[in-house]
Amino acid sequence: MSDCDVLVIGAGPGGSSAAYWLAKQGLSVIAVEKKTFPREKTCGDGLTPRSVYQLEAMGMADFLSKQHRYSGLRAVAFKRDMELNWPNHPDLPNYGYVVTRFDLDAAVANNAVSAGAKIIQGAEAISVTKSSSGQIDSVSVKVKASDETLIFRPKFVIVADGSNSRIGRQLGVARDRSLPMGLALRGYFSSPMSNDKFIESHLDIRTKDGEILPGYGWIFPLGDGRVNVGIGLLSTLGKWKDVNTTKVMEAFVEQAPKRWGLSLSDPLYTPTGGKLPMGFSLGPRSGPNYLIIGDASGAINPFNGEGIAYAYETGRIAADVIGDAIKQNNFRSLERYDRIIDKRYADYYAVGRAFVSLIGKPIIMRSAVNLGIHSKTIMTPLVRIMANLMREDNKGLPEFTYQTGLALVKLKNAVMSKKF
């Protein structure tokens, strides 16, 4: 038996972020991670300004300075390119980094340990026991190396074990199947443009037969001779489960601009994939003494499939809420978590889900992409909206466009609620 203030289940981005911020408050925190760092993780490896902000806040600026820094996004569609720098923002940086999750997650976990957290690697949470009130009393953790089972009795638990959360399912977390799901596939390639200063997003990914699919392709330079190449598809595609993602990936590589020098025969290329529950499609997100964060809560941005920033952010929010609950000796204060999450993300993700629904219609997607790629006036605010880089202090076209979209979404919801 082992007692602690907080047990964090999973030490990926969300879990390590939570562990760091809890330890900084002087709380006893233990994180259990079923894998052993460093380990591979299917991801685009791109860190947007929102992710960079959170990492720098955790004291990781020195680590980031040794990684490949980039300036913005190059949008590609219908054989046209458009380079868009990250905008200036009062809080967020105007640059990003591309770092493999193999290196990044290990560094963030070690950073949490340096702050005072304890991380047990190769240890998987397998079950929980709950009281009649629904509070978690104990957590059983299987240590792979010794085959022993550890029993933890924490005051609070943070669940951060990913989109296929084993503990989340035991706590009754389920996916709202009416909300969008993403599916991603990625691989590494050698490339002469590994030092490029832009990450590249292809907005018209196609099958080998030329059919445009709802989603996007990416090429992210790592600065070490490699690039991360992948595709992301949306469940708004009618028969998306029947799509052969391997074939779509191969078509994307073959159709990629020749400047990248990509080849399917590259020995580095080993595709891996995963499903992406988006827009807080998993819930409930909280219980009497536990909180669900990151991918385990479906926190991925539906606009662009970004999950890392929102894992860091929800981990930090959860740490703040639990820290306050411990200081006040008031378990009921955990109810703040849902209120904070809804206030910060609910409207934005509602617009994102509407956006995903629209681009799931091939005719609308083709027309919108064709229009946008010919106009920087359209693409500049769109990129700021999709990357969640809007400003409150100096509202302009991006903010006006977003507010218009939000008003339309709320109007539609009001009409539908009256209809039914």
Report on this model:
The protein has 420 residues and is of the alpha+beta class. It folds into three domains: 6-67 and 101-177 and 279-347, 3-Layer(bba) Sandwich (FAD/NAD(P)-binding domain); 181-277, D-Amino Acid Oxidase, Chain A, domain 2; 349-419, no CATH class. Helices cover 35% and strands 25% of the residues. The chain has a seven-stranded mixed β-sheet with strand order 6-5-15-16-17-14-18, with helices on both faces. A hairpin with a 5-residue loop joins strand 9 and strand 10 (136-143). The protein is globular.
How do the strands and helices of this protein lay out in sequence?
Blueprint (H helix, E strand, L loop, with lengths): L5 E4 L3 H12 L4 E5 L12 E2 L1 H9 L3 H5 L2 E3 L1 E6 L2 E6 L10 E3 L2 H14 L3 E4 L1 E8 L5 E8 L4 E5 L3 E4 L6 H5 L3 E2 L5 E10 L7 E5 L12 E7 L4 E9 L10 H11 L16 E6 L4 E2 L2 E2 L2 E3 L15 H21 L7 H24 L2 H11 L3 H11 L10 H23 L1
